[in-house]
Design goal:
By secondary structure, the protein is mainly beta. It is 8% helix and 45% strand.
Length: 143
Amino acid sequence: MNLLRLGLATAAAIGLSLGTGTAFATPGGPGVHGTILSQTTIGGKDYILRQIILPAGESTGWHFHDGPLYAFVQQGTLSHFDSSCASDGVYRPGNSLTEPADADHVHIGRNLGKTDVILDVLYVLPHGAPLSEDAPNPGCDFQ
């Protein structure tokens, strides 16, 4: 069982209540959007389950998170880059990834393919923190 599935199972076991809504997203390309599937707060941490759709040719924009993020790729191929402009992973359907917290982990997710990328993402954030924090392009020749 991968880390995301374990996290989702744990979240379900502690009683996440379902609710839907449009999430506030880091500025990305046209059509990039996310929907909150579920959220709860336990012990000063917000647990937010969100589905993100990243259309072909688009990106998330440069950003970081105030808490760790666990993602599972449902569809498409996500190309992930760190602030050195190097690829730090290519994730295909069935793959999971973890993004560490804090401003020293600025990154961008890009869809370089021809089909939408669909991600299921579990955010574990300090209570009240935004889903992501915008960051300037660190000098890469892509956005």
